[in-house]
Every structure is written in C-alpha cells, then in structure tokens.
Amino acid sequence: MTSLANPFSYADLPNDVGRLIFELLAEDGVVSCATVSKRVRSWVERVIYREVFLVTTEMGALFHRTVQEIETSSSSTKPKGFLASRVKSLFVQWGVEATLVAPILEACTGVTALALYIPDTHANPQLWVVTTSDELAPTSLAIPGSALPEANRDFLQPIFRHLTHLELLWEDEEGLDVEWETLRSLEHLTHLSVDMQFDSEDDTVLDIVEDLLGICPESVRVFIFWVVFSAYFEPDSEHFEGIMALHRGEVDKRVVVGHSTPGPDLTEARSGIMFMTYADIIAGWGRPSKARETIWSRAEDRIERRMNDRANAT
C-alpha cells in the first residue's frame, strides 16, 4: 500500500466549506473543535455562545468566569462586549448561584430570548437594577414577578417593551403586588403564558382567567394557563368544570390549558389537556434551535386542532 505524498488537511478546504464543517460540529456539541486553530475558534464561537443554557451551580460558575475574563482580563482572546453580540438565547435556572445572575445578564444584553427560571430567593437589589434598566430588550421572556423590585412590578419596565412572547412564572393568585392593568401596554405581545397557583374561596379559575383576558392586549393570539396541581383535574374539584370549559375553548378560543406534573392521567377528561414535561418546557427555552417543540408551538397546535374539530363537526 502506498501513502499519499501530500496528505489532505482541513487547511486545504475553501474557507466557506471548512467553516460550514466546523460550525456543524459545534452545533452537534463537539465544542473541542474550537481548539484546532484560532481561525476555527473564531468560526465556532458564534455557534457555541449563541444559546447559553445554565442549569447547575458549576455551569453558572464557569460561565461567570468567562464573563469576568472577557471584561477584566487583558489577556482575553475575546473583545469586551463579545457576549453581548454573540449570546442570543439565555436560560438561567435556580441551580445558578443567586449572586451570579445579575453579572451574567449584564454581559448578555443582546439576548432575544431570555428565561429566568429562578426562585424568589434569588431576588436581590443587583438583579433588580439589571431587570429594570433599558439594557435588556428581548422579544421572548420567561420571568417570575420577584425578579422585579416591589416598587416596579409592572409591565411598563423597559425589559418588556419589545416582547412578543411572555411567560409569567410561579405567580400566586393573591401573590406579589403586580400592576396587572399595565399588561395592556404590551402592544407587540402575541403569546402569553401564566403559571399561577390558585386556591381561593372567592375566585374560581374562570374568574381569574377572564380577568386576565380582559386586560390582555388585543394582539394576543395564544393564552396558556398552567394548572399546577393535579387534584384540580378531579371531577369533584371546585375548579374542574371551569378548567374543562377553558380546555374546550368555550370561554375564549385563544386559551389553552397546560399541565406539567408527571404521572398517569387522573381522569379521562385530562387526556386532552396540553401536557409537557418540565424537561421539554425548558428545552424549548434553553435550546430553541434543537427543541422539537415549545410551549408556544404546542399551544398553537392545540388551538388549530380544536378549530378543525369544530369545523368537521358542523
């Protein structure tokens, strides 16, 4: 067997072909390809940092170290503002240390999709400074009310100004003192999701949803109402009939009922409820380019199928 006198090298590839190959490798998670050369690193970094998914303490600490190196180290290979121009999707979960969330947000001001799946205990003045500044202007946002300071819990804050998709997380019915009426100001909003716990003797689920629908902008086409507790799907629950009326589209055709608690169906009626596991929900936010579906696409599909069923029944 004879060997080639001039073995083939990736350097022999045309730039556009080589770039495409390495970008595809990075898309598949082969981030080690960034160490091949400086040229290759410049190609794949835009892919590697496009979607940042931080769910553990270690992930948060490592990414925060990258932030610090870029912003403070003279030996950094990345220019200041690198993350602001590269990171387009940022997902932060409760595993990330609370004190690191604000610095990470400050470095990623160019995000178009931002999801803060963080508990109330992560709220702090440094975070509030960032969330009420005009530096962040995503078009898709998932946020708990506690991520805003008590004096500014309204939808007039700059972070909401360009939103088309908004998920409000873990809102208690009595809950945080949110100026709900200001929801009307979101003139670009088309998709709204509310994850709300309710257990009031005075208000039914229909009262709550109808109140929210009454203050939604006219632009809203999809409204997801997440039911947290499986017990509410039991026929003897005071909320059951209201939930099923919403589910059937009898209250408003834009409304979809969602549920994410794992386990077998509790009732026959629940089998038609939009069910998504927590893993699928966060995949839609954290890795949008790889997600099979999102809460929005599932809800849109549910609304379309419901309309088709009605059309076929007539």
The helix tally amounts to 10
* Spatial arrangement of strands, main beta sheet: 1-2-3-4-5-6-7-8-9
Q: Low-confidence parts, pLDDT < 50 over ≥5 residues?
A: none
**CA-based shape:** globular
Judged by helices, strands and strand pairing, the structural class is alpha/beta
| pLDDT averaged over residues | 83
| Rg, nearest Å | 23 Å
- Based on DSSP secondary structure assignment, what is the total number of beta strands? 9
Binned strand content: 5-15%
Helix content: 25-40%
Largest sheet features = 9 strands, parallel
The SSE order reads HHEHHEHEHEEEHEHEEHH
C-alpha termini separation: 75 Å
Element layout with pairings:
Elements: H1 15-27, H2 38-48, E1 51-54, H3 57-72, H4 82-86, E2 89-93, H5 98-107, E3 113-117, H6 125-131, E4 140-144, E5 165-172, E6 191-197, H7 205-214, E7 222-226, H8 240-247, E8 255-259, E9 274-275, H9 278-286, H10 295-313
Parallel strand pairs: 1-2, 2-3, 3-4, 4-5, 5-6, 6-7, 7-8, 8-9
Protein name: F-box domain-containing protein
Domain F-box: 7-52
Organism: Coprinellus micaceus (Glistening ink-cap mushroom)
Which key phrases capture this entry?
314 residues; nine-stranded parallel beta sheet; 9 strands; alpha/beta
Task: Walk me through this protein's architecture.
It is a single chain. The protein has helices at residues 15-27, 38-48, 57-72, 82-86, 98-107, 125-131, 205-214, 240-247, 278-286, 295-313, and strands spanning 51-54, 89-93, 113-117, 140-144, 165-172, 191-197, 222-226, 255-259, 274-275. The mean pLDDT is 83. Helix 1 crosses helix 2, helix 3 crosses helix 5 (98-107) and helix 5 (98-107) packs parallel to helix 6. With 314 residues, the protein is α/β, with parallel strands linked by helices. Among the domains are: 11-48, no CATH class; 190-314. Strands 1-2-3-4-5-6-7-8-9 form a nine-stranded parallel beta sheet, sandwiched between helices. The radius of gyration is 23 Å and the shape is globular.
